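Chains adopt folds. We examine one example:
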Amino acid sequence: MEGIKEIIALALKEDIRHGDITSESIFEKSHTSNAVIKAKQDCVICGEAVVNEIKEFFKDIEITIFKKDGEFVKKGDIVYSLQGNTIELLKLERTLLNFVQRLSGIATVTNKFVRELEGTSIKLLDTRKTTPGMRILEKYAVKTGGGNNHRFGLYDGVLIKENHIKAAGSIEKAVQMCRKNIPHLIKIEVEVENLNQLQQAINAKADGVLLDNMTLKDIEKACKLKENHNFFIEVSGGITLEKLKDLKNLNIDYISSGYITHSAGIVDLTMLFT
């Protein structure tokens, strides 16, 4: 996965710099140990991409994967085992745990949202609300949890938002300029905050709309308009598991949530020598 090596290298440099003063003071360079990484809570595990890459930095450490990405792990389960030089094991411990705990947290929360939408055709999407420098990994975690990726950045999708509309003068003008300048295969989506803006987007022939923080009643009205017009509906803004229960029976196509990345937290994992 492109970019992961650089992310891990930066994290290792941040933690290790020129060495591990504690471990190097205690152990001979030839000392070896065995260790396991265990789950301290139930979760959906995610971290193979990091494990496979971190091996390149610690070639003398053998890591065995017991739980594959996307598997549901119970408290007490062994996720990975590690064997090799003691000092090297202690050097990689925190960096590896930090990544896997964070990514598993996102995968676990995403999976809860996805399971709430089971039986519908609605796709759960992530957003650009990610940790700086970590987007590729956090979006990978969303996919591991069963979700789908929205655009990766400003470079790969057109989404006309509030500030675009304000600066352009209107939704119609913003859509017209995009239609004029983008390749014909790229769809145009417009973020709208009310039914009046929705109608403007429909009149401008946008391919889709993002209903931002709209009431359930207005979302239902938007779905009725969709019956007579060809556009897709994405719903976003304050998406929670409770809100999904109200939305999942509506004729919408996508639900996007920043929560699944920016507020997922971590799962509790530990590395213990055996």
